[in-house]
Amino acid sequence: AFRFRDAERDRLVLRASLAEARLQALDHQLNPHFLFNALNSIRALVLEEPHEARRAVTLLSSLLRQTLQAGREATHPLAAELDLVRPYLDLEAIRFGDRLSVTWDIAPEAETVEIPALLLLTLVENAAKHGIARIESGGEICVSARASGETLTLEVTNSAPRPSSPREVPADGASGGTGTGLANTRERLSLLYGADADLSLSHRADRVIARVRLPLRSDA
After folding, report:
1. What is the CA 132 to chain-centroid distance, rounded?
2. What is the structure's pLDDT at 154?
3. What single DSSP character describes residue 113?
4. pTM exceeding the 0.85 threshold for the entire prediction
5. How far does the chain reach from its first CA to its final CA, in angstroms?
6. Distance CA 203, CA 22 (A)
7. Residue 205: what pLDDT?
8. Chunked mean pLDDT (size 10), the chain, 220 residues
């Protein structure tokens, strides 16, 4: 009996260690992902709009500093995540101009809830890259957060090309992307929360909705 308990304990410790290593590996994949896309945005501005390119470099510097800081922790308050998302969307607003409209619907009580670092940023980047960038006339990104009962619900809704028929968006990408960021996000959610969290992606008319549900955990 003692040998069985020792073997079971060792197995659980090994599983926890492997999960932690995998989580760290996923976190390390996310930072370069956002930096690469931000640099691409600036590159597009350098020749045509040098003034805006300089402002974009300032925003990128802020985003870099905060993203690298955020990457040191597995989770942080939603308020800290919003401090990453806002400069990122400011960068995208420079690139898209009046083709991008952003709306916010953040419940104050949701801002202290702990979420995986870079989670919301991943969803917003996906919305810009695979949604707004694919529409000639541009569109809207809406970011919302609500805390109800024991659950935090985050939603990122973006304009998207209208599909030929209503359907669910494939799990591996919103609008033809590789879906690496979303796949990593799902795995991180599984590692951190198990079955208590989920990420769904749906396409309704001319909108793509990314929705994450997390158990409420507050830093307060």
Report:
1. 16
2. 98
3. B
4. no
5. 43
6. 30
7. 82
8. 57 50 47 66 78 83 72 83 90 86 96 91 89 91 95 96 50 46 85 92 91 80
Backbone angles phi, psi at 28, to 5 degrees: -70, -25
**Three-state secondary structure string covering the chain:** CHHHHHHHHHHHHHHHHHHHHHHHHHHHHHHHHHHHHHHHHHHHHHCCCHHHHHHHHHHHHHHHHHHHHHCCCCEEEHHHHHHHHHHHHHHHHHHHHHHEEEEEEECHHHCCEEEECCHHHHHHHHHHHHCHHHCCCCEEEEEEEEEECCEEEEEEEEECCCCCCCECCCCCCCCCCCCHHHHHHHHHHHHHHHHHCEEEEEEECCEEEEEEEEECCECC
Tell me, rounded to whole angstroms, the distance of Cα 178 from its chain centroid: 15
Region for residue 39 given its phi and psi (left: phi exceeds 0; alpha: psi -120 to 50; beta: otherwise): alpha
Tokens for 177? Answer: 């992307």
Which two structure tokens, joined as six digits, stand for 172? 């591996």
pLDDT of 52 reads: 80
Give the integer Cα–Cα distance in Å for 211 and 199. Answer: 6
In this structure, what token pair is assigned to residue 81?
A: 């995540």
For 141, the token pair is 């990104």
Unique residue bearing structure tokens 């795995």: 187
Q: In this predicted structure, what is the pLDDT of residue 31?
A: 54
Residue 55 host element (H or E): helix 50-70
